[in-house]
Amino acid sequence: MFLILDALAAGEGRRLSSLDVIGAGPRAIAGVLEMFGLEYKIYRVEDFLRRGARGFRVLLASAMTMDEPAVKRAASRFRGVKIIGGPITSDPSVVPRLGFHLGVWGEGEVALESLLRNGLSEGEIPSELGSIPNLITGDGTLTRASNLSVEDFRRFQPSVTAIRFYRTVPHYRSSRVYVEVVRSCSNFNRPKIRASKEMCDLCMACYEFDLRKRLVCPQGIPPGCGYCSIPALYGPPKSRDRDSIVEEVRGLAEAGVRRIVLSGADFLEYGREKLVSGPLTHPYEPGPNVDAIEELLREIKGLSREYGFFFEVENVKPCLVNDEVAEVLGRYLRGTPIHIGVETGDPEHADLLGRPCGPQESMEAIKRLKEVGLRPYAYFIHSLPGQNDKTVRMTLKYMELAYKHGAEKITVYKFRPLPGTAFEGYNVVVDRGSKMIAEKAIELNRERKRELLGAVIKVIVAPSVGRGNYAYPLAGGPVVRLKVGRKLKTGKVLEVRITKVLSDRLVEGVPVDRRSS
Ligand code: SF4
Q1: Is 158 domain-assigned?
Q2: 207 CA from centroid of ligand 1 (Å)
Q3: Does residue 199 line the site of ligand 1, with CB under 6 A?
Q4: Segments forming the whole domain that contains residue 237
Q5: Is 10 in the pocket of ligand 1 (CB under 6 A)?
Q6: Which of 65, 75, 97, 131 is such that its CA lies 20 to 30 A from the CA of 437?
Q7: Is the CB of 203 under 6 A from ligand 1?
């Protein structure tokens, strides 16, 4: 029996945020096991560390770089074959460091399929590994980095039934379940902070429209924004077939899922690769494939009416938000959150970071999406390479502007240098400016939450934590602490009136109809 260990966002072994998120990765692994008719279970790493698990021969762990402590503890308690994948393996040295036999780098479907075909389905590590792509051996050596072809990508179907393994925190009945619709990002610009200007002047690939020329940088700088590893790990974007996404969403809805996120580094990349003949390496030329996006949203909207689930899309790149696509998003996604990266308020800094769009374009996107009825969330990062007084001043200004244009939430992250990116190994300096950016977000978010006071919203009850009852707004928004006298069933939907702002992330709500409590 196989144990799929979902450690995504577990950090030290206790999730502090994203308590209502179920990522797409573990169900993708489950889908490959189902192709081979193999038995498996999915455990959240917290549950595994608390209760243990017996009777498994193979451990397949899925984790991010931040989850190293939890994964290390889990690996030390498992007797059997241990394999790790997910963004954490962008640094192949994690495999020996965390005590795994093998790792899967980047896209793992074909590597896992080859391992299963050659002995892993019997619980054995194949004797010959050299020919398997994207495999990290026990000493941390990567066999061969490769990206899936569009055809290979579409051969694999994520499992739907696997969702029922999520019965603790997060619980599938109350959580946002991510459905991958497009993989990777077309930003093959490079950060210029450490680039030689002379070589850039000779090359100019970052400013080219020739898609093939943009694939490789003569200076060896990985593609994409310096704080993001996606294009380097997954190559140019590729979209799933609409029918396959629809089938997955229908299956999840039938299983009882009530919140679905159509996920991707940029939802507006969906179907865009069909508009070009080469690899899609330009972040905004051509613009979005509006027909493909509309056809997908129309189908999902139909399912949401049939089954009564709520759905939203994940991120969009500001430079792909034009009037035409905004109008389509407004038609199908009115009232839902949408996530937009601004990251820095200084356009020169944005260019040095490798961003394809500056803060002004991000503001235009926020305005456009707000006008058509969406609820934009704006993202910023502090302590980035190149942060100085000017970038801080301009970032504070653009945070205010994003708020003024109607951003419902301002989220600030601290920069973390990721393995495999241009900023790998960068020293993170948290200075006074970083703190000012973080504090500005708290101030603006508190102000926005106050606007919720008195509003009646639909929420979905989360698993109880300690003595508290919590719920998530069905249409997105801050976590609601419920003022009720007894525990409520997970997944129950009710209306609450917001009565108090408890923090920049938490509000208090009282059920409107007391009989429902
Ligand atoms: S691809 Fe590399 S060398 Fe060419 S312009 Fe971009 S950063 Fe400079």
Answers
A1: no
A2: 9
A3: yes
A4: 175-450
A5: no
A6: 65
A7: yes
pLDDT at 16 over 80: no
Among the atoms of ligand 1, which is closest to the Cα of residue 203?
4
Cα 382 to middle of ligand 1, angstroms: 25
One domain for residues 311 and 434: yes
Residue 336 domain-assigned?
Answer: yes
| Ligand 1 pocket, residue 352 CB under 6 Å | no
167 domain residue, yes or no:
no
The residue whose CA is least distant from atom 2 of ligand 1 is: 217
d(CA 214, CA 236): 11
Q: What is the dihedral of CA 245, 152, 9, 263, to 10 degrees?
A: -30
Give every CB contact of residue 124 below 8 A, 6+ residues apart in sequence: 81
Share of the chain above pLDDT 70, in %: 99
State whether 230 and 301 are in the same domain: yes
From the alpha carbon of 199, which atom of ligand 1 is closest? 3
C-alpha pair distances (Å), 307 with each of 177, 295, 314 = 15, 19, 21
pLDDT, one tens digit per residue, over 296-338 is 999 999 999 999 999 999 999 999 999 999 999 999 999 999 9
Omega before residue 92 within 30° of 0, cis: no
476-483 mean pLDDT: 90
Q: Are residues 374 and 427 in the same domain?
A: yes
Tell me, what's the pLDDT at 486? Answer: 81
Q: Are residues 127 and 263 in the same domain?
A: no
Please name every residue paired with 292 in a beta bridge, in sequence order, or none if there are none: none
Answer yes or no: is the C-beta of 190 below 6 A from any ligand 1 atom: yes
Q: With a 6 A CB cut-off, is 221 part of the ligand 1 pocket?
A: yes
Same domain as 495, residue 473: yes
Nearest atom, ligand 1, residue 206 CA? 6
- Continuous H helices in 256-338: 290-307, 323-333
Nearest Cα to 113, choosing from 57, 157, 162? 157
Count of domains forming the chain: 3
Which residue lies with its CA nearest to atom 8 of ligand 1? 200
Do residues 460 and 433 share a domain? no
**Is residue 61 in contact with ligand 1, taking CB distance under 6 Å?**
no
Where a domain ends, among 450, 468, 495? 450
Task: Tell how far the Cα of 72 is from the centroid of ligand 1, in angstroms.
Answer: 38
Under the banding of pLDDT at 50, 70 and 90, the label for residue 516 is very low
Residue 451 DSSP code: T
Residue 164 lies in a domain: no
The residue whose C-alpha atom lies closest to atom 7 belonging to ligand 1 is 190
Residue where one domain finishes, among candidates 450, 469, 504: 450
